[in-house]
């Protein structure tokens, strides 16, 4: 559910094909301001929704929660006179379709063979992310604490003019007051240490994109292989994750539709001492963004729709979760 939420902010940015040649249509500054409204729902024992503050046991799936949300978003970018270098502050368009989002400060450079390199840094954003100090506390109100992350990424698109793209990202998150498991008597110091959640993340991806139909409507497929390693302070939280994603991209006049299907599995390093089992899981998801450029026949305005669903089936019922988001928005670019 948390992975889907930032997409509501970003759906308005996806208005051009991912394989478009120029970084921008013209040099100089560009600003995008958008307003989005939507509905989110889900089930997760780790959700910090106020409706999820108290749980009665750790052997059941979470109760459903839902909410209506509305808020603005803005992106700033500057493209040099030769249209080959672009500096940006905000979110990167090519990550929207796979529901990978963070606020970034970065630069993209395009070479003569149309290959590109992007380097970006994403800082900590206090108050934007939180978690429970002790997620296993039962029959009492759980207390929230900050869970902040920062890191960077590098991306090589269309290497040497080929259809191959490589990506690498690193992030470090810190849970301020991590009291995982302290409400459970009988756990040793070593077992409590195994539940510590502050982590380093490494993610590597290889992807390609190829056309399947190139008439008035253009259709592309984009398969991606993704590997993520989480190296947490606690071995019960550390995992290796493998994902396969398949993107379906459709471009027709003012219409753009990008849908990404995801399937993968997470394999954990050690048992969770509370459940005496590993938290291994199967992860499924679908995420779709539709945009209509020049809405109301007004060139600066784009209308967007977004929908996504994700599901995690864990060997530990406590960690089973699912999330749904639907939203609509208008973006104004100048």
TrEMBL record:
Pfam families: DUF2860. Residues 1-20 form the signal peptide. InterPro entries: DUF2860. It comes from the Bacteria. This is DUF2860 domain-containing protein. Keywords: Signal. It comes from Psychromonas marina.
């Amino acid at each position: 559910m948390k992975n889907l939420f930032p997409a509501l902010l970003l759906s308005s940015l996806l208005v051009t094909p991912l394989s478009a040649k120029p970084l921008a249509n013209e040099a100089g500054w560009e600003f995008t301001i958008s307003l989005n409204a939507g509905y989110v729902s889900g089930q997760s024992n780790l959700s910090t929704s106020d409706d999820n503050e108290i749980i009665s046991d750790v052997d059941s799936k979470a109760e459903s929660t839902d909410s209506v949300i509305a808020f603005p978003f803005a992106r700033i970018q500057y493209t040099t006179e030769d249209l080959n270098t672009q500096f940006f502050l905000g979110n990167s368009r090519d990550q929207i379709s796979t529901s990978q989002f963070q606020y970034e400060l970065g630069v993209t450079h395009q070479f003569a063979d149309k290959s590109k390199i992007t380097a970006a840094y994403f800082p900590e954003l206090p108050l934007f992310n939180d978690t429970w100090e002790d997620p296993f506390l039962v029959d009492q109100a759980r207390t929230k604490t900050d869970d902040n992350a920062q890191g960077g990424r590098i991306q090589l698109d269309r290497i040497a003019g080929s259809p191959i793209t490589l990506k690498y990202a690193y992030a470090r998150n810190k849970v301020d007051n991590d009291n995982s498991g302290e409400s459970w008597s009988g756990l040793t110091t070593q077992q409590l240490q195994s539940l510590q959640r502050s982590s380093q993340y490494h993610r590597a991806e290889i992807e390609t994109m190829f056309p399947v139909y190139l008439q008035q409507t253009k259709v592309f497929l984009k398969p991606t292989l993704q590997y993520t390693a989480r190296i947490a302070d606690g071995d019960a939280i550390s995992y290796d994750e493998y994902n396969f994603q398949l993107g379906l991209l459709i471009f027709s006049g003012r219409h753009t539709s990008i849908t990404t299907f995801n399937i993968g599995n997470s394999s954990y390093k050690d048992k969770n001492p509370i459940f005496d089992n590993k938290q291994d899981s199967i992860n499924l998801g679908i995420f779709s963004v539709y945009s209509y450029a020049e809405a109301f026949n007004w060139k600066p305005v784009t209308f967007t729709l977004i929908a996504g669903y994700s599901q995690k089936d864990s060997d530990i019922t406590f960690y089973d979760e699912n999330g749904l988001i639907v939203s609509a928005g208008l973006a104004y670019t100048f």
